[in-house]
Amino acid sequence: LLCAAAKSGEEEEVAKLLASGADATHFDADGLTPLMHAAAGGHAAVARLLLDCGAPWNALSPSGLSAGDLTSDDTYDVLLEHALRSELVLGTVARRQNASGAPAESYLESRVSFSEERVMDAESKAVMMAWERPLMEVHARAVCQGGKVLNVGFGMGLVDEAIQRYEPEEHTIVEAHPQVYERMLKLGWGEKKNVRIVFGRWQDVMPQLGSYD
């Protein structure tokens, strides 16, 4: 019922179903979530309702598509805004975990796969998706206020590509995942004149890092 209401953009019905306990994370018989239906249909208000009730913006369909991949112009900004908030929250959680000594070894030891659209971890969860590019461009604009820039985590390279467009004096990238690091080198990032790649966890390579603007 929730997927059907989301697909048709019935905001009041979606709100009623969610209030009565409908599962915003549900996958229908086609492997699509209510948020995917709302995004594809351009129903921004419905998408916002679902996100506020915990609908996963990065869940993937059987064909490997997320709500962001399916979204129309009308719902794109809603998803992007939520993704930005999620990134900020996850960043805070990660910093607190690192401060308490909790390692991220499970990810670093797992295999990842790459495509033009996303980076997937060993559990087939999307680590980064191409539709997040505008989000990464916002990040780049925020940090490129001076000549020396530091980015931790290369992923698909979206934020680093955006940083390069600002032509920083020095662009340092810290990457801890062996496969991602290897891919960076294959893509030629180690040959860029203003780029310095440091392999390892940022906590471990701090002594190798300088000061940044």
UniProtKB/TrEMBL annotation:
Signal peptide segment: none
The entry's keywords: ANK repeat
Record-linked Pfam families: Ank_4
InterPro entries with a match to the protein in the record: Ankyrin_rpt, Ankyrin_rpt-contain_sf, RMT2/GAMT_Mtase, SAM-dependent_MTases_sf
Extent of the ANK repeats: 30-62
PANTHER family attached to this UniProt entry: GUANIDINOACETATE N-METHYLTRANSFERASE
This protein's name: Ankyrin repeat family protein
Native source species: Sorghum bicolor (Sorghum)
